[in-house]
Each structure stands twice: as C-alpha cells, then as structure tokens.
Amino acid sequence: MTADLIGRLRQVVGPAAVLTDPADLAGYVSDWRAAYAGPAAAVVRPGRTEEVAAVVARCAEAGVAVVPQGGNTGLCGGAVPDRSGRQVVLSLTRMRRVRDLDVANQTITVEAGAVLRSVQEAAAAAGQLFPLSLGAEGSCTIGGNLATNAGGTGVLRYGTMRDLTLGLEVVLPDGRIWNGLRGLRKDNTGYDLKQLFIGSEGTLGVITAAVLKLFPAVRSRATAWVALPNPQAAVELIGVLRELAGDRLTGFEIMSRQSVEFVLRHVTGARDPLGDRQPWYALVELSDTLPAAGLDEVIESALGEAFEKGVVVDGVVAAGPAQAAALWALREGISEAQNHEGPSLKHDVSVPVSRIPAFVARTDRALEEAVPGIRIVTYGHIGDGNLHYNLSKPEGSDDAEFRARAATLARVIYDSAGAFDGSISAEHGLGQAKREIIADYKDGHELELMRGLKRLFDPRGLMNPGKVLPG
User: Fold this and answer.
1) pLDDT for 298-349, tens place per residue?
2) What's the angle, vertex CA 427, arms to CA 449 and CA 85, rounded to 5?
3) Which 3 state secondary structure label does DSSP give 288?
4) CA distances (Å), 106 to each of 157, 198, 303, 359, 443, in order?
5) Which of 96, 110, 151, 185 has the smallest set of CB atoms within 10 Å of its CB?
6) From CA 99, how far away is CA 121, in angstroms rounded?
7) How far is it, in rounded angstroms, from Cα 349 to Cα 388?
C-alpha cells in the first residue's frame, strides 16, 4: 500500500471518507463476535456508485485487493480483511438511499448500504411489505443480505434474497459498472447475471443497488406456540398446516428444549408459555392481507387436527400482538442467550424437510458420543429445511478444551448433513470459516465451474480474496 494510492482514493471520495488511523478502523477489521480479524491498509466509504467504481478501479491499477463490507453482521468472516494488512475495506454504509418505490410494479430500488429495517419501513409507509426478516435486521444491510443470499424467517412463504430480487447494479473488479436495475418479472434475454452475484460474498463484484420485490401489506396474523414430542411431529404438523392454510403459512420455527432453557435462564422477562417441559417446540405464524381473515380459527382447527393425530402435545395461540411478540422473543433470543453459557460453536445446515427427523437423531447421537454431556442447541426454519446446530460445552467443563474440539464437532455435523444430501451452509455463507472444508462436501466439477467464473470476472483475484473458494 503506497501513500500515492491513499492520496488517489481521497481524491475520489474525500479525505474524511478514507480511514487509516487504527482507532478509526476498529469497527471494520473485526466481525461483531471478534471471531475473525485482520488489519486493513485503509477503509474507504464511498457515497455513490461512481465513487465505488473509481475506488475499485484505482485499487485494481495498484494491484490491491478490495474487501466489500456492509453491516459486518456475518458469522463466517466473509467481510473481514486477511492478516496481510494490505487490503482495502470498501464499506457501503454511506449508500443508504431509496432510489425508487413503484407501488404499481410492487418494487423498491435501494442502495446496498440501506439497513434492512429501513427498507422494511419504507415499504410499510407505502402500504407494502418487504418480507425479509432476520435477527440482525436493525444493523445488516441489503448488500450483505444479497452477498450471502439471506433467508430468515419468511422463506417458507416468500423465499430467499434470490427470490426477492429482480435486478442489480454491480461494480465489476476492473471498475466497470453493470447496470442491471430492471424491475422485470419476465426477461428471457440470456443468462441471468444477477444470480451470479447473489450469494457470491463479494468475490465477483461489489453490489451497489438492487430492485427488490414488494408484496401487499399483511393486515392479520395468527401466532401459536406448540409443544411437540419429536422432530417427526414437526414435519407432520407442517403438512397439516399447509393443507388447511396454504400459502398463509408464513413462519414455522422449531426449537429444542435446551434452546428454550437458555432463553428462560438468561433473557429478562422471558416466560415459558406452557406449563410442562417438552423436548421440542414449534412457533407457527399465519398471515393474510385481509384485516379479518379468520386466521385464529384456521390455526386452531389445524392444531386440533394435529392434536387428535398425536402430533401436538400442547399449544397456545397468541391473544394479540403483544403475546405474539413475546413468543417470537423466545425464538429470537436463543443465540444471544447461549453466549452466557460459554463458548458457542455455531453451525448452519440444511437437509430436505422429510429427512430432518433422521438427521437430528443421527447427529445428536454422534455428538453425544464425541462429547458426553454436550448441550445441543438446535433451532431454525424447519419449514425450509434449515437448522442452526449450535453447541455448548458440558456444564463445569473447560472452555479452552471445548474450543479445541470445534473442528472435530463441526465434522460430525457436516458429515451427517452430507449423508442426508444436505448443505453445510444454508444461509450464513462460506466466508473464511468454511472455504477449505467445502471441498470435502461439494463435487469437484462444481468447484471447478465456480473457479472458472471467478477467473472470468476477477482474473487477478483482487475481489475479496480468501473467501468462498478453497485455496
């Protein structure tokens, strides 16, 4: 990194938008969990797409790698620089504008640095819904959501970011701008280039703006907390709900009792909705655009049918928005609550919904054999096959000893997912964390195709190197 390049970057974005002081870099060179960190040569904060293009072009001329970064809320180190101290972090957080909101076309065009919650609020102000919802929505950005193909709690009804995106604007690794901001639902004119960038974690280019789908605003909801004897019951309950509610089934989350125990122990105000302890729970949500859709009756009918079949042990339907929010707080508090129990080894996998019961049985058995007394915190979006398999140490055991088993325990989970035709990363991406191990779970021809795309778009390997693709 030369002083000449720093000077040229400051000419592009202004002196205040190029950070080099270590004190100013702190929030950009480490992820929010402090799990991944690396010194950066500089952090550059452009305010317009043209500035992004100029910054990328000047870094390319100098042979300096660029690390695109949004809200830096990821779990796999995908937006953190390496340890060379020679990379430039390109923060998109100044680019927050809503460029267009077209109610008739049901689209919203936003810049990559827009915080997810602000996009939700802009849609709601227009009587529309942007349905992506996840725990970090108050700080994650649309660019990051796109780079990792975020899913969240609404995938069952609305899909992932791949399904919610119509067009993109991208700065390519040589500084050219590809303007694909088309709000078209039908465009059969060749390769769908936007899908290459979604989920690529900034390794093919920098997403600077997107045209996203909107939906009619939700005007009625019904939420229920249900006790289940086992994961098989959860799969059967999904079937009952789909038959009776159709696409009004918008949320179906599953949680092990261990997950709920941690929330009840560590989250202030958390209360158990049911009296008796059960091994598994489901959080179910129906929604409709009609203000009086009779959803309480639908969900009660479905749960009654499931109870008669022995699928449901107990349950409660929220009496109003406050109770519904309290039920969702139990689900959303799991990850934070687990942190109070010592090291938390986090894994994000997916398997076909029908195979979840067998996968859970096999994986739990293998983990308990590997570490007797291990506390398994399993929860997730079972309606789309995505489970978060987080692990806490046995009570009273040593933190460092447990952390030393992290790679072995990850292998147990990933091998089990592979045995059931699953994925080792459902929605968190690969980043640094899984870039090497993915080679053991992905077909070699598929990896070579991915490497070919990388060489085509980024022949010099300057766009977020060290992420996604095995070395």
Assistant:
1) 999 999 999 999 999 999 999 999 999 999 999 999 988 999 999 999 999 9
2) 75
3) strand
4) 17, 21, 34, 39, 39
5) 185
6) 15
7) 6
Q: H or E segment at 381? A: strand 375-381
For 192-254, give the DSSP string.
-THHHHTTSTTSS-EEEEEEEE-EEPP-EEEEEEEEESSHHHHHHHHHHHHHHHGGGEEEEEE
Coil, strand or helix at 101: strand
Q: What are phi and psi of 60, to 5 degrees?
A: -65, -40
Q: Which residue bears the tokens 């202030």?
A: 268
DSSP secondary structure letter of residue 396: T
User: Exposed (0-12), middle (13-18) or buried (19+): which is 150, by Cβ within 10 Å?
Assistant: buried
Interior angle at CA 235, CA 229 and CA 239, nearest 5: 125
d(CA 92, CA 111): 9
User: Which position has the token pair 């050219």?
Assistant: 176
pLDDT tens digit string along 57-111? 999 999 999 999 999 999 899 999 999 999 999 999 999 999 999 999 999 999 9
Q: Detail the DSSP E strand segments found in 2-153.
A: 18-19, 42-44, 66-69, 88-91, 98-102, 107-111, 128-129
- 110 φ, ψ to 5°? -130, 155
Residues 227 and 263: their CA atoms lie apart, in Å, by: 16
In which element (H, E) is residue 362 found? Answer: helix 356-370
What's the chain's length in residues? 471
Contacts of 458 (CB under 8 A, 6+ apart): 173, 203, 204, 205
Stretch (H or E) spanning 170: strand 165-171
For residue 440, give the nearest of 459, 424, 454 by alpha carbon.
424
Tokens 């980043």 -> residue = 431
**DSSP labels for 49-91?**
HHHHHHHHHHHHHHT--EEEESS---SSSTTS--TTS--EEEE
pTM recorded for the entire structure = 0.94
